Structure formats: C-alpha cells, structure tokens
C-alpha cells in the first residue's frame, strides 16, 4: 500500500515527511487552496530522495504551465483535480506519472472513467467538494464496490487517525494507496509529523496483513 502525503509546502516539514518514507509528496499549485505553494523553490525539492515522487497538484491549469513546472522542478507526477479531459491527461502520460482525481458524492457514475482508462496511471477518489479538494471529509467507501476498471486507485478524502484502520474493510483489487492531507496538519500546509508517524504504522500494518492473507 503506497502513501501519498499531500498539501506540503515547507522545506523542513517536507524533509521530515520524506524521512517517514512517504512514497509521494503532493504540492498544490492551485491558488485558491490554503495549501497553495506559490514558489516551489520554497519546498526544497532538491533535498528529498529521488525515490519519492514529487507530485504537482493542479486544478484546470494550462498544459504549458504544468510542463514548465515539470521541467523546472523535476516533478515526477501530476495530479489533475479539475475538469481535465482524458486527452489532456494522455499528453503527460509516459512522461510523468498521471493521477486523475474525481470527487465522489453520495453516488458516483464510474462509467465516466472508462474514457480515461488508457490515459492515466492512477485514479484518486476524493470527497466531492466545491473547493476541488482538501475537504477533510470522507465519502462512503462502499461506493468503490462499483468500480470495475483495471486502473489502480488512491483513496483520498478525510483520511485520519480515527478512520484509517477501516481501510482494512476495502478488499478492492485495485486499491493501491492512501492520500493523507488536512487531518494531519498543525496548520494548512504544515503536517503533524507525530500524527503521520502513527498513520504510517497503521498503513504498514494493513500492508503486512494484506500480504499474509
Ligand atoms: O488540499 C487542498 O487544499 C486541495 C485543494 C484543491 C485541490 C486539491 C487539493 N488537495 C489534493 C489532495 O490530494 C488532498 O489530499 C485531497 O483532496 C484530500 O484532502 P483531505 O480531505 O483534506 O484529506
């Protein structure tokens, strides 16, 4: 089970998250988010191990701007959180890892994902919110039983120390990773390392059990 810690922006805080063994770190390039990183120089990306995927998170950003940031900061992955089309995503596939986020409400039509299947590496299922992300609220994970494509997915939306144990109830073969954000913060964009340490232990435990069963 992979772990992505999202909404980071401070170099020292990012180093501490990297030391925990995060597989992905998310840097939000959406200026309406309280976790917006205006200047990626502040994130100290040169100091983190190459094994960690530096993920730019975008909401309806232009392809040119995304490409510029990939080139300038060596982003390894992009997460598209707006209304980006499958063709838009496909233009980046095989250059960087592409995650396409979808907001899940009380119901969700997984048919709309069929078009994206060959154009992305992962889906990220988040809680539907007008803010596009970072709601701190979880959705009803039972809905995932209706997902039948073979693209692996990250579970996102309101994951916290209180509900992370419950990922064990998700038996889906494409369940690939978890995305941790606002429930692990001391303030927007600053992660609580002690809380994350506990979360990593829970996910590790889940992964060990998964391998055994
Ligand atoms: O976190 C934000 O502020 C945000 C705003 C706009 C688009 C995406 C955003 N976050 C992207 C993520 O991957 C978050 O981790 C995801 O939305 C879940 O956040 P949370 O519910 O706070 O755990």
TrEMBL record:
Pathway: Amino-acid biosynthesis; L-tryptophan biosynthesis; L-tryptophan from chorismate: step 3/5. Coiled coil: none annotated. One of its GO terms (molecular function) is isomerase activity. It catalyses: N-(5-phospho-beta-D-ribosyl)anthranilate = 1-(2-carboxyphenylamino)-1-deoxy-D-ribulose 5-phosphate. Its EC number is 5.3.1.24. PANTHER family: N-(5'-PHOSPHORIBOSYL)ANTHRANILATE ISOMERASE. This is N-(5'-phosphoribosyl)anthranilate isomerase. It comes from Mucilaginibacter calamicampi.
């Amino acid at each position: 089970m992979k772990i992505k810690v999202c909404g980071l922006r401070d170099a020292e805080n990012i180093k501490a998250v990297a030391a925990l063994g995060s597989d992905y770190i998310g840097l939000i390039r959406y200026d309406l988010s309280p976790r917006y990183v205006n200047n990626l120089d502040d994130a100290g990306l040169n100091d983190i191990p190459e094994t960690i995927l530096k993920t730019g998170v975008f909401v309806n950003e232009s392809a040119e701007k995304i490409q510029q940031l990939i080139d300038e900061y060596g982003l390894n992955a992009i997460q598209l959180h707006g209304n980006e089309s499958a063709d838009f995503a496909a233009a980046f596939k095989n250059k960087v890892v592409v995650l396409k986020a979808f907001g899940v409400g009380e119901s969700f039509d997984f048919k709309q994902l069929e078009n994206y299947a060959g154009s992305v590496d992962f889906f990220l299922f988040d809680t539907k919110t007008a803010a596009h992300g970072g709601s701190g609220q979880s959705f009803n994970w039972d809905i995932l039983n209706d997902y039948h494509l073979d693209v692996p997915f990250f579970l996102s939306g309101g994951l916290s120390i209180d509900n992370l144990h419950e990922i064990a109830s998700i038996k889906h073969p494409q369940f690939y990773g978890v995305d941790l954000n606002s429930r692990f913060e001391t303030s927007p964009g600053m992660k609580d390392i002690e809380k994350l340490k506990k979360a990593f232990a829970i996910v590790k435990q889940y992964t060990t059990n998964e391998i055994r069963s």
